[in-house]
Amino acid sequence: MKVAILTLGFHPRPVEHIMLTQQPKACHVVASEDGLNYIASEHGYTKPNSTVLRETARRVRCKLSLYRCDPFDPESIGDALSKILEKIKSDDEVTINYSGGTQAMSLVLGSVAIVLTRIMPVRVLYSTRSLGGKEKIFDHTQALRDLLRKLYEIVPSGEV
Questions:
Q1: How many structural domains are present in the chain?
Q2: pLDDT digit string (tens) for 144-157?
Q3: Distance between CA 37 and CA 146 in Å, rounded?
Q4: What is the CATH number of the domain that holds 9?
């Protein structure tokens, strides 16, 4: 099954964009209560982020699950992600998008992505919008694998 794991900040578009373009069957979103309740009016939204995501999920026929966390506490973020990982099956097609939320959320989700790539096929994506409004999705999966391989070669074993 196609599964997406994402983090949400105050702007729902990174999550919404992945849902619309990748069309996962299950979408797991880690967010703060403030992020879910926020209305991104500065970006043209008129409804809370949670409503925007629920409506998008309905449109693409995706099961949406929301996991609340303290967006600045790595342990809280990790606890939310652990709940998601308990639901992932080894034959799922997992897409991780680390472009939403706080830097702490991206760091923890990125770390989970790195661990998962060692045990199952995972795509690691970053989505953004250019100043001109063009949306882009970057697949960082191979670049991260290559970077990790280089880091393992550079850092002597036993010294980390």
A1: 1
A2: 888 888 887 888 76
A3: 38
A4: 3.40.50.11700
